[in-house]
Design brief:
By secondary structure, the protein is α+β, with helices and mostly antiparallel strands. The protein has 2 domains: 220 residues, f41 fragment of flagellin, N-terminal domain (Up-down Bundle); 84 residues, no CATH class. 54% of the residues lie in helices and 16% in strands. It contains 7 helices and 14 strands. Helix 2 packs antiparallel against helix 3 and helix 3 runs antiparallel to helix 5. The two termini are 27 Å apart.
């Protein structure tokens, strides 16, 4: 088989062009650090790379959501910590208000301090997040969650928390609503002294048997001629007996104890357990202190009011602490999700690197061989072009 000089030269030129293209491609790979310069270089690897890119973008979105939720929960945790401090301060003021040596002036001073703490609590409850919306407003976009008025406290938020996706099939609430934290606070049975009481009697203890289910509340506890009588909301007598200061009596599973001597006609109301917002609790304590005039009857009414106030403060404090523990659990969930995402992201990026990144050492060695092959082809072409019969004449 004969191969003409022209055909040989053409084939050599094609080889030179091919080697030149291979060198250019290898140089581009080394310069960019990427093994695939276009999808056609490795269609299967390119398709897998697109899928991995999508997975990384999803993880980035999850991490962004985690950051936003963590910001709100951290803000809530700080607010709850401050709210706990406020309640502890009010507890101390309430205990001072129940002291035997307190006078009307001191009571008014304590009431002013409780009012100041109440204002601080409103400020905490109305704190805003980074987005300008109330931290405890739920999903409602409002800059203020609570409004105080002469009729009490109005909640402007809603009862739902934002549920944010932080991972595949995993969502987390970004906080608690103001209704959960400040309004829906469990309260035990409460005893309230009638405004017109003129005796010295005050509540000293109330206990409810776990198996008791007192009905027809509220009850009225009245005193007359050295006896006590308990009637239900319909006026039916539930129990009565001789009154001895400091001694307890039990009616329908509820044990009551009063100190000091009541006047004939003095009465107390026993209200059922339920819920009471913390703002009302602080307002009632301040109002009781403001109403103290120094008389023995006024002192008895104040003692009864502060007894119930302390119970409600304890319940509110425990409720806020429990809520803060819930926030802590959610923050731990965020940490675990974030760590998991970081681990997956590292694996995905490693796989992408194997698919796309060029091995510099291998590419440099390959480039050297390609340059050598190109130089050989060029030298072969030069020699072919120098062949001629005229050189033999």
């Amino acid at each position: 088989m004969r191969i003409s000089t022209q055909a040989f030269q053409t084939r050599t030129l094609e080889m030179i062009q091919q080697k030149t293209a291979e060198i250019a491609k290898t140089q581009q790979q080394i310069a960019s650090g990427e093994r695939m310069t276009r999808a056609g270089d490795d269609p299967a690897a390119a398709a897998r790379g697109v899928a991995l890119d999508s997975a990384l973008e999803q993880i980035t979105r999850y991490q962004s959501n985690i950051g936003q939720v963590r910001e709100r929960l951290t803000g809530e945790e700080a607010a709850l910590d401050e709210a706990t401090n406020v309640l502890n301060t009010v507890r101390e003021l309430t205990i001072q208000g129940g002291g035997a040596a307190i006078d009307a002036s001191t009571a008014r001073s304590l009431a002013e301090q409780v009012r100041a703490q109440l204002a601080d609590l409103y400020a905490i409850a109305n704190r805003q997040g980074a987005d300008g919306n109330a931290l405890f407003g739920g999903t409602r976009q409002t800059d203020q969650a609570f409004v105080a008025s002469s009729d009490g406290t109005t909640y402007l938020g809603d009862g739902q928390s934002r549920s944010v996706r932080i991972g595949p099939n995993q969502s987390l609430a970004d906080g608690h609503t103001g209704r959960e934290v400040f309004m829906q606070i469990p309260s035990s049975m409460a005893v309230t002294a009638a405004t017109g009481n003129s005796g010295n009697a005050s509540i000293s203890d109330i206990a409810v048997d776990a198996a008791a289910s007192p009905a027809a509340l509220p009850w009225r506890v009245s005193f007359s001629a050295g006896n006590w009588t308990v009637t239900d909301s319909g006026g039916t007598t539930l129990g009565d007996g001789a009154y001895t200061p400091g001694e307890s009596f039990t009616v329908d599973g509820v044990t009551l104890s009063f100190d000091e001597i009541p006047a004939d006609g003095d009465s107390f109301t026993v209200s059922p357990a339920g819920e009471q917002d913390v703002f009302t609790t602080l307002d009632q304590i301040a109002t009781a202190l403001e109403g103290f005039d120094g008389s023995s009857a006024s002192r008895a009414r104040l003692t009864t009011a502060l007894y119930g106030g302390l119970d409600n403060i304890e319940a509110a404090t425990e409720h806020v602490i429990d809520t803060r523990a819930s926030v802590g659990n959610r923050l731990q969930t965020l940490d675990r999700a974030e760590d998991a995402h970081e681990g997956v992201a590292v694996e995905l990026m490693s796989t992408l690197s194997d698919l796309r990144d060029v091995d510099i050492a291998e590419a440099a060695s390959r480039l050297s061989l390609q340059i050598t092959a190109l130089e050989a082809a060029q030298q072969t072409l030069v020699r072919m072009q120098g062949l001629s019969l005229f050189r033999l004449l």
